[in-house]
Design a protein that fits this description.
alpha/beta, 4-stranded mixed sheet, 4-stranded antiparallel sheet, 44% helix, globular
């Protein structure tokens, strides 16, 4: 089999066979195919696409290109959650304890943030002493004892995807539905869960800016998951403004604690309850979504989920006293307010710009090797629909170095102020099963 024949075949729009896709993935993993030929096939796929069978085969071979996680020693139906990435997205840290409190084990491998999107691992590392690296036995034992563990991905999990993503990133082939779907789902399959819940973000802070594009991606991932024997559900959620009021790492942990203590932050609460309800049904704790919703809501309001969060922190070496004293989390030296320049209503907040502001302050990475400042971040004082007067603060920038003029201007430009209040948008756009 020759790589040039696969490139030519896909260039002409023909589907690849199982043997050809296996040959390609093995060649990528073993580095026996040169980058220029891999890139050529990626570009052909970008333009010609892949059908459902091709995408499922690519996903399956990629999932098995390296180590896989065996979660069978953990009793019960294990459910994993994946977010396509956003700004202020601390949902996993609320949903995890909620689902665990329903008796559904959550064994989750997460990633780090890059660019304007935050990473769950970076947020957790702002908790003093917290360990995101556990041995396989420690990981499984923590899930058995606590019902929840979140760790970093192992180095050899889906190596084919690491190679392909690096090349897609530099060859303008990232925005391909089959390639995105196979990348996401291969990691979820290799992580060993029995069922998968996908949080597909839509809006200015998301990878998919338009609802129709996000829906198409969600449909593909759900089809692939179900085709490969994993019950999969996708929820389309609003990312047209940052989630909650905090963007960063330490400050997002503070907001997680607020929500788990029962404070109503509308978007965080609604999206978390929706996702947790679906995960509880996927985990077979309930057969009825409404009953699941009532139970997870009760867990949130009574403090039961907060207790699971405490046990989770303690089990992974973190200091659980941050729950009573959030000031133990990292705190920045500078707190710079940015003010509105006119009266009116907030009609839009460009979440990507807010995320880039936080990155420039030190809360995120422009390059993978950049160091995170866990104290840096942004606190929003206004959300879409809020009235604002000239001179009122739009938000506060937290940093350990004084923010420069460009960063202040970037944050201020995130807000659109008009004379009339906008129509409210839903937090959840729909569910794909």
């Amino acid at each position: 089999m020759r790589m040039i024949d696969l490139i030519e075949k896909k260039r002409e729009g023909y589907p690849l066979t199982a043997e050809e896709i296996r040959f390609f993935v093995e060649g990528v993993t073993k580095e026996s195919i040169p980058d220029y030929q891999i890139s050529a096939l990626l570009m052909a796929i970008y333009f010609q696409g892949m059908n459902e069978e091709e995408t499922a085969l690519l996903t399956s071979y990629m999932a098995n290109s390296g180590e896989t996680v065996d979660l069978r020693p953990i009793p019960g139906k294990k459910v994993d959650k994946h977010s396509t990435g956003g700004v202020g997205d601390k949902i996993s840290l609320i949903v995890g304890p909620l689902v665990a409190s329903m008796g559904v084990p959550v064994a989750k491998m997460s990633g780090r943030g890059l660019g304007h999107t935050g990473g769950t691992l970076d947020k957790l590392e702002s908790i003093p002493g917290f360990r995101i690296s556990l041995s396989r036995d420690e990981f499984i034992q923590t899930v058995k004892e606590v019902g929840l563990s979140i760790v970093g991905q192992t180095g050899n999990l889906v190596p084919a995807d690491k190679k392909l993503y690096a090349l897609r990133d530099v060859t303008a082939t990232v925005e391909s539905i089959p390639l995105i779907a196979s990348s996401v789902m291969s990691k979820k399959l290799a992580s060993g869960a029995d069922a998968i819940l996908l949080d597909v973000k839509v809006g200015s802070g998301a990878f998919m800016k338009k609802e129709e594009d996000a829906r198409r991606l969600a449909e593909w991932m759900v089809k692939i998951g179900n085709r490969l024997g994993k019950k999969t559900v996708a929820v389309l959620t609003n990312m047209d403004q940052p989630l909650g009021f905090e963007v960063g790492n330490g400050n997002e942990i503070k907001e997680v604690i607020q929500v788990l203590k029962g404070e109503t932050i509308p978007d965080l609460r609604e999206i978390s309850l929706t996702l947790a309800s679906h995960m509880a049904v996927l985990g077979e704790a309930f057969t009825d979504l409404e009953q699941a919703r009532l139970s997870v809501e009760k867990s949130l309001d009574t403090g039961e989920a907060l207790e699971y969060f405490r046990r989770f922190i303690e089990a992974q070496g973190g200091d659980p006293s941050i729950i009573e004293d959030p000031e133990k989390l990292p705190t920045a030296s500078y707190h710079t307010e940015v003010f509105a320049e006119r009266n009116g209503y907030i009609t839009k907040i460009n979440a990507e710009k807010v995320g880039l502001t936080a990155m420039r302050l030190g809360a995120g990475r422009e390059k993978k090797e950049d160091q995170i400042d866990h104290a840096a971040g942004v606190t929003l004082r206004k959300k879409i629909g809020n009235p604002v007067r000239r001179g009122e603060p739009l938000g506060i920038l937290h940093s350990n170095r004084k923010p420069d003029r460009e960063t202040l201007a970037l944050f201020q430009s995130s807000f659109q102020i008009e004379e009339k209040s906008p129509e409210p948008s839903p937090f959840v756009y729909g569910v794909i099963e």
